[in-house]
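User: Hi! Is it possible to get a structure for several chains at once, not just one? Here's what I have:
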Amino acid sequence: MTTDIVTIERDLQELWKSNTAEAAAAGHSTTRALTLNLLARATSIEQADAMGAVIQALTASHPCRAVVLIDQPDQGDPQLEAWVQANCLLPAPGAPQVCGEQITISSRGARAGQVASLMLPLLVPDLPVVLWMDGDQPFGHRLLGKLRGVLDRLIVDSASFADPIRDLAVMAEFDASNTSGPESPALSDLNWARLTPWRELIAQFFDTRPFLPHLRRLDHVEIDYVAVGEGGLLRALMLAGWLASNLGWDLCEGGVSRDGEDIGLHLIRPAVGAASGGTRTVTVTLRPAQFDDNALVGLSALHLRAVDNVLADFSVEHTDNPTCVRTLAQVAGQPTVSRLAHAERADTTELLAAELRLLSRDRTFSAALHSAASFARGIIEP
Amino acid sequence: MTDTPILENPLRSGLRLGRTPEPCTMVIFGATGDLTSRKLVPALYNLARERRIPGGFSVVGFARRDWDDAFFHQTLLEGVNDNSRSGKAEHPLWDSFANGIFYHQSSFDEAAGYASLRDRLNAIDHERGTGGNRVFYLATPPEAYPVIIRQLGAHGLATSPNGGWTRIIVEKPFGRDLESARDLNAELLSVFHEDQVYRIDHYLGKETVQNLMVFRFANGIFEPIWNRSQIDHVQITVSETVGAEDRGGYYDKSGAMRDMIQNHLMQLLTLTTMEPPVAYDANAVRDEKVKALRAVRPIRPADVATYTVRGQYGPGNMGGSPVVGYRSGKGIDPESQTETFVALKLFVDNWRWAGVPFYLRTGKRLPRRVSEIAVQFKTAPHLLFADSPTNDIEPNVLSIKIQPDEGITLKVSSKVPGQGQIRPVTMDFRYGTTFGVASPEAYERLLLDCMLGDGTLFTRRDEVEASWSLITPIHQGWADGPRQEFPNYEAGDWGPASADEFMARDGRAWRRV
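Assistant: Yes, the chains can be modeled jointly so their relative placement is included. Here is the combined structure:
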């Protein structure tokens, strides 16, 4: 067990020496590849193990220097321990084995407050610095405050926020306060990343030229979300926020209503066409759906409709097959287009990898989050 | 209040995947052939599976054989199961995809077959919402190209109804010499506009080939040394382990020069030597490629002995097993003079490259399957480490590997710890390990680009003619010269001994790839 920088670095050197020797004895070579600094904060050993497993799997696409912090300020005697390990892929025949490295730091009691001073010198220069904070919303956490100046990206998962609706608004405030300046990390939410296949399939309807004009005519949206945990409702809010921010829909004053468990959002849509006589309203209904294990990433179905004048209906629904969704486009006077599409259920490693591929702020996410937060505030105070 | 029509899909803004094309129908001529089941349909299935092409997308297979939709589907399904990079077809997805696949039986010169094709395409537009958008894919033997093009023109299929678009993809070989390439271009352009024509070279769909431009033009450190001042020579190698005996009928009339050099290796040469384009768009990129080709010094027929080497493999061993020689293949002349190996030395006569030799080699039945561009830099001007146990410091080599392991390697000299020795070490960048995502198949990228109307990775008329204008004089020189003592290398060797002598004359050696 080691606690200071010099010892950690010496342990890393020893680790690589023995790793290289073991690889040579096994008849292959080994390559240490570091593409980023990934700092991960866990609150228990079990959570750290789970995050470590994700980081190990991430080596395939993002070999990195990972620093996993087990942060337990309220437990036990003051203690700061660290140990190192290599995260290696199984070598392909004839190819060198690719490895990243991981430093795990366990901090307890009063010494937890000192941990940032141990993490900062462990960052590899000239590589992006990403902080992954799983669990409850971390926007006021002391560690984030200490590391903010060096972070390129903060990754959270709003599906595990303790008070999701309020925390969504807090997340939006954090993002809004971080829009510029060299010390402003970009924000990623894995719960938003889970929506990518849905967004892709919805956008794809309107790549078809005859369908594109109907996008501005939409007046009814129904989102059925899986009501297990609160992550589903947040995803539904963010999807609605994405549509609203891209299509210029604004929430009416007092525009959030509840009907049993259904949530209604009433928005103003910009006018379309010279004869339309002004703006129109759009009704977005968020409905909890029965839990269904096949439901794609927590959403169950989505319908976009224009009922005023020419009837147009675009829908995405999951099927009995866990990796398939059915898309259906029905527009009066046009052939009905239906198909099955593959929609993968991305695991945490894949979601994280997708966020790590982003090199800059995701402005689409920021805009969707801003709109979703206005809906969340309406839910809190109708 | 505004009444502005929407031209762009606002939901595409910031999406993490690129845009998808409008629904269209792809008509594959020669649909019962190997290319369709091995490459084209697996590529289309993967595009559909990964949501890169929209619902409504349809395929019509046009061929002579007396097949029906069900048999066609079954053949294609087997092709996907055997060849798709995503593994076996997933059934609900395949069934949904196959709903849009139809078989159209007709010979290529039968007018009625095209009239019924037109009716069928109109019906698909109506039933599946393809909006008059069509891609014709010529996957037939090249002899059939002219008649198909004429029939398409005669039946009004070169233009689309309902404001849709029509494009045509032409597979290689695009001609067999300069004259036939010009004739084929004239045939195509009598029916289609140049911007409707997509001449495919699947090498351009490979990630590393595309990355070559990014590597050169998105990194400030390489361009200043990418010239005659710093580069000693360049070697471009495309070696294959397969023989040609299984497709002898075609290959014996073609040879390595037409089959590989005229298209794939010349593409690699132009991407290595071209100047930065003014924009990354189809015409700007292709303008620069054509300029580079026009700067290549033609090898005159009288000079072929100096600048070229030919080879043909005889019997030998591959991977520990005996294999027959080229001339033993079916449909191959037992006295064949067709080359299965070619090495060339080319010069690019412009300010950037004057005096730098470009060595190109390709061959069949070579020990390893490798495609790479190796840029060898000049050695350090003064040997500072004369007391080193070796005074033979190797030059830096930048090697861009296209297959099988796509990636880039830079060889630099480094001191061995604790000793005075200097050893070359390599800095490796591999697509497979760095990005961790499977590169899409070349055909996926190219088919998608065509459907999106992006011709950047396709060959333009002047480009294909400029390339043939370099190749045809070499064929003339070979034809005028003495008969070759073929076979002159054993299967499993790195080509004929004369190829090594060819390099040794310049004081150089082929890379051990």
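Residues 321 and 492 of chain B are 10 Å apart (CA to CA). DSSP finds 14 helices and 18 strands in chain B.

User: Great, thank you!
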